[in-house]
# Entry
Amino acid sequence: MTEFDSRVRRVRPDHWDLGTPCKEWSVHDLVNHLVYEQLWAPELLAGCTVEQVGDRFDGDQLGEDPLHTWVVAAAAAREAWIEPGALAKTVHVSWGRIPATEYCWQMTLDLGVHAWDLARAIGVDDRLDPDLAHTLLEYAQANAGSYAETGLFDAPVPVPDDADDQSKLVALLGRTP
# Structure
């Protein structure tokens, strides 16, 4: 979350319509997606089902002050994640019930790769913390088969064997490093 947060804070007013490595998304769309994800976390960690949450977070969540909206949503998600016992829970997602630890990994991967996407879109440093990149790469490699089935990511992009972990991570998730 820190990696994404640091990039959102560098978005200028003239950046919101820029394209991103996510082919269909502008900077606005990308940040809105992450706000949407953060808004869901407290609800799911509180035991709500997808049906109970419904469509309340659909559409544009950024409003007049996108940075403020991000900060509020991220803070609420952080609070939900650091609540004692949060990681021991089971959460309801669109395809069933999963351990909260798996949900946390999915959200962390999403935040990490989209921090890179956002940095690329707005022209700021795209280097992720090397330990984070390494850990996310291990998680992504272990789950690469399921990503191909979901269509959430483009096909992996080839990189040299000696590429760094971040390059391998973004390439595995369909981005050209």
The two ends are 21 Å apart (CA to CA).
